[in-house]
Amino acid sequence: MKKVELDILGKENPFELIGQQWMLITAGDKQKFNTMTASWGGLGWLWNKPVAFIFVRPERYTHDFLESSEKVTLSFFPESCREALQICGTKSGRDCDKVKEAGLTPVELKGGAMTFEQARLTAECRMLFKSDMKQAEFIDKEVLAKWYSDAGLHSVYVLEIEKLWE
Fold it and tell me: Residue 19 phi/psi, 5° resolution?
């Protein structure tokens, strides 16, 4: 993988990149990490920094890793990896080696964060902020009813995008 300038993110459509193509959120280190597919999140500018924001439910195994990690990667893949992303989104790392099942090859970045050889683009990020959603804070109660009737509310993480890798 080679480091690339952060401004190449300006050439990406974040709605397509995250909402349509999906991403893998990965936390932990070479000894023990977990990854999950996500299609909710965003990219932007906050606190004079390039940031990503992600949403992860506490029930997800990756949540445990996010809670104890300073570094996180967001990895984006070519369409040819769609099946691998589906496996990483439907299987739990608690129950199986989903990275192996998905046919992905883990790669440790220089700072110790994990990504995958097959990723076309990886954002190496540093944790800046975390908050847990609360029912009382939903202004549109229909969103609460539609998305949270049978599962926990998401934790919201703001990540500084420190480096990009291709």
Answer: -75, -30
User: With a threshold of 0.90, does the pTM exceed it?
Assistant: yes
Question: How far is the first Cα of the chain from the last one, in angstroms, to the nearest whole number?
Answer: 5
- Are the beta carbons of 145 and 115 closer than 8 angstroms? no
Total residues belonging to the chain? 166
Secondary structure tally for the chain: helices H, strands E: 5, 10
Instruction: Map tokens 């959603």 to a residue.
Output: 133
pLDDT tens digits, one per residue of 99-152:
999 999 999 999 899 999 999 999 999 999 999 999 999 999 999 999 998 778
Q: At 67, phi and psi to the nearest 5?
A: -65, -25
Which residue(s) pair with 123 in the sheet?
74, 164
Cα(52)–Cα(135) distance, integer angstroms = 23
Residues 87, 35: Cα–Cα separation, whole Å:
11
What does DSSP say about strands 155-165 and 121-132: parallel, antiparallel, or unpaired?
antiparallel
d(Cα 34, Cα 42) in Å, to the nearest integer? 21
Report how far Cα 115 is from the mean position of its chain's Cα atoms: 11
